[in-house]
C-alpha cells in the first residue's frame, strides 16, 4: 500500500498556485474595512503564520518526496511510535476557543505542533490530520476508521438510514443509491431548468427589493430548491420549520428526548416531517402522479435496494429524502453567502466574472464547466471561508498515520483548512484571488491537499451539485447587478455562526445595485 501511495504521489504534478495577482497586475489583497480586517486577521492571519511553520514539510510533499505512512495493521509496529504532538486541554475551554474562532484555533495548534496534532474536541481525545502526508495516511487507514464519531445526539437523529452513521456494505449501498438518484450528471441535466427558474425568481425578487439577508434567504431558498430537486414536493412553511427544528436538534447537547430540549424537539420534528413526506409520496403513488417528470429523482430513490437486494421501505425513502435536503441546504447557503460577501470587496473580480458570464452560453453542464473564472471564485471562496472542517471517525484499531501512533478509541479528522492556508500551495494565502484557480485548477493540486467536502469513504458526494447550482446563480447574479455591499447598518456586523457550519449571521444585510 505504501508503495502504491508513493507512486501515486510521485505521479501527481505538484504546482503551487501562482502568486496572487489582481487584474491590474497588483497583488490582490482583501480590502476590508478596519473591523472587517480585524475579524479577518483574527480568523485567517493566524492560520497563515502557523502554516508557514510547517510549509517546509509541505514543500517536501510538493517536490514529490513525501513520506507517506500508510495504515499499519500491525499493532506491534504502531506501538513503537509516539503519539501525535499536542496537549489536549480542558474540554470546555478548548471548545469555547474553537467556537469563537475555529480557523484560529486550528492554526495555533498547527503553529505549535505541526499539521498532525492532538486536541480535545467536544470532550473527546481527537487527532486532527492535515498536510498531504497526514491526509493520505488518513485515507489509507480508513478501513479502520470508517465508523463515524459523531456526537450521540447527532447520531440518533441522523437515523440508521443516514450515511454518516453507516459503514461497510450498508454505507456503500446507500451512497450508490443516493448518487444514482440525485447526485450524478444525468440527474443534473434534469435539475438545470429548475435551478435556473429558481435563480431567476430569487433575483427578480431581489431586484425589486434592492436589499437582502444573504444567509437567511439562501437557507430558505436552498431548502425549497433541494426539496423540489430531490422529491418534487414543495416544502411548505411548516415543513421548512420542521427541518430547521430537526437541524437544531442534531446539535443539541443534552441527549434527552424531552419537550424542552433541542434534541427532544428535533426528534418530534423529524418524525412529523417523515410522516408528511411519506403521506405525500404514497398519495403520489396512489394517484399515478409519481410518473410526472418532476418526480424523476424521487422515483429513482424509490427504486433503491439495500445491501441485500431488498427494496427500501417507504420509511427509508422518506427519511433519506429528508436527510438529503438537510445535508445540502446549509452548505449551499454558506457557499453562496460567502461568495457574495467576499466578491463585494473586489470590483475587478466582479467585472471579470461579468465578462465571462455575459460572453458565454451557460445553458448546459458542459457550457457551465467552461466558466473557469466563476469556478475560481467558488473554489477560492471555499478555500478562504471553508464551511466546515472534515468529518470525524473513530479509530477502531491502533493506527499509524504520518509516522504517529493513534490509539484505538481516538477520534480522527482530516482537516481541509490546514492545506487551504499553506503558502507553499497557495502563495499569499490571505489574498482572495480567483485567478489562482484559473491558472491552476483545484483538480491539479496535489492529492490530499484539496478536499472542501471532506475526504475518503464519507467524502461529500454533493460538491458537484453545490458547484453547479452556485455557478448558475453567480452567472445570473453578476449579469444582473454591478455592485453589492453590506448595508450601512450591517457593516462590520457579520455575526458569523462558526459551528457546525460557518455562515454569515441571519441579520447581516446587503444591498445591490442594478447594471
Ligand atoms: C459547498 C457545499 C458542501 C460542503 C462544503 C459539504 C461538506 C461536507 C462534509 C465536510 C462532509 C463530511 C465528509 C466526511 O465525513 O468526511 C459531507 C458529507 C456529505 N454531504 Fe456534503 N457538503 C456540501 C454540499 C452537499 C450537497 C449539495 C449535498 C447533496 C445532498 C451533500 C450531501 C452530503 C452527504 C450525503 C454526505 C455524507 C456522505 C457519507 O456519509 O458517505 N453535501 N459534506
Automatic annotation (TrEMBL):
<dbReference type="InterPro" id="IPR036396">
    <property type="entry name" value="Cyt_P450_sf"/>
</dbReference>
<dbReference type="GO" id="GO:0016705">
    <property type="term" value="F:oxidoreductase activity, acting on paired donors, with incorporation or reduction of molecular oxygen"/>
</dbReference>
<comment type="similarity">
    <text>Belongs to the cytochrome P450 family.</text>
</comment>
<keyword id="KW-0349">Heme</keyword>
<dbReference type="GO" id="GO:0016125">
    <property type="term" value="P:sterol metabolic process"/>
</dbReference>
<keyword id="KW-0503">Monooxygenase</keyword>
<dbReference type="Pfam" id="PF00067">
    <property type="entry name" value="p450"/>
</dbReference>
<protein>
    <submittedName>
        <fullName>Cyp120 protein</fullName>
    </submittedName>
</protein>
<dbReference type="InterPro" id="IPR001128">
    <property type="entry name" value="Cyt_P450"/>
</dbReference>
<dbReference type="GO" id="GO:0020037">
    <property type="term" value="F:heme binding"/>
</dbReference>
<dbReference type="GO" id="GO:0004497">
    <property type="term" value="F:monooxygenase activity"/>
</dbReference>
<keyword id="KW-0479">Metal-binding</keyword>
<dbReference type="GO" id="GO:0005506">
    <property type="term" value="F:iron ion binding"/>
</dbReference>
<keyword id="KW-0408">Iron</keyword>
<keyword id="KW-0560">Oxidoreductase</keyword>
<dbReference type="InterPro" id="IPR002397">
    <property type="entry name" value="Cyt_P450_B"/>
</dbReference>
